[in-house]
Amino acid sequence: MRHPDAEVHVLGQPRFDVLAGLSRDTQRRYLEHLLAHGPRRSPARIAVWACQPFGPDRLKAQADLLLDGLWQAGGDWGLVIAPHPAQSVDVFAPLLERHGRPLVAVADPRVGARGCLAGADALASAYSTCGIEAALMGVPVLELGSPGERTLGLSDHGLARRCSTADDIADALVALRGPHPPADRAATDAVCRWRGDSAAQVACLITRRSGGHAMHSHHINHDARAAESGRPQGEGVPVR
C-alpha cells in the first residue's frame, strides 16, 4: 500500500522444487528395504510417520494411535518412522522391540521424511511441513491430533484426513484401498501454488526486472525447469 507500483507474484515455494524430480520407485525400494530384514518380507502397504519433537508421553500416545489404527485397518500395513532432526532415534527403541505386525522401522535421520515420503502409501504427522509436500505429490495425508490441537489444517482444504482416534486412522486407510481422485488443483493452490519450477520463476522475475522490462506473472515460462540446479544435499533418497 505504501508503494503504488508494487506488484505481487505468486511463484510457489523453491524449497519444494526438488520434489518434481524425485523417484517414487527408488524411495519405495528404500522403504521396503527398511521393513524387510532377514526372512521377513516387506508389507504390501507402507505409511511414513513424519515425527515432531514431542515429549515422551505425547510421542508414545501418537505411536500407539498410529499402530492401533494400522492394525485395525488390515491390508498388511507397515510403518516407517522418520525422526525429526531434533530427535534421537533411541526414543523409538521400544517400538522396534515389538513382535508381529504392523512391522516398524526407523528411517536414517539423514534421509528423513522428505527423503522417503514419495514412496509411501500414506504420510502421517501432526504438523510437519512434509504434509504439504506429500499433498503436492498426491500422497494421502493423515493429520494427527485431538480436537483443538495444532495441525497444518490441510484437512480444511480436503487435502488430508483429520485423525484423533485409532478408528479414524483405520477408516482413512481402508478408504485408500479404492481409487481416489487426484487432489483438486484449487485446493493445493490454496496451500501452495507450486508447479515444480518456482526457483526458475523467481530467477526469471529477477532477471527481467534487472533488465528494466515490464513483466507480469503470466509472462513467466512455467516450463523453465532447465534453470534448476542439482539436487540440494539431503533432499530425498538419491536415484540408484
Question: In words, what does this structure look like?
Answer:
- It is a single chain.
- The chain has about 240 residues and is of the alpha/beta class.
- The protein has a six-stranded parallel β-sheet, sandwiched between helices.
- Helix 2 packs across helix 5.
- The protein is globular and about 65 Å long.
Outline:
With 240 residues, the chain is of the alpha/beta class. The chain has helices spanning 24-35, 56-73, 93-96, 130-137, 166-175, 185-191, 198-210, and strands at 45-50, 77-82, 103-106, 122-125, 141-144, 161-163.
Structural class: alpha/beta
Strands of the largest sheet, in order across it?
A: 3-2-1-4-5-6
The proportion of residues in beta strands is 5-15%
Average of pLDDT: 84
For this entry, give a set of tags.
single chain; 240 residues; alpha/beta; six-stranded parallel sheet; 6 strands; disordered C terminus
Any chance you could write out the topology, listing elements then pairs?
Layout lengths: L23 H12 L9 E6 L5 H18 L3 E6 L10 H4 L6 E4 L15 E4 L4 H8 L3 E4 L16 E3 L2 H10 L9 H7 L6 H13 L30
Parallel strand pairs: 1-2, 1-4, 2-3, 4-5, 5-6
Helix pairs in contact: 2-5
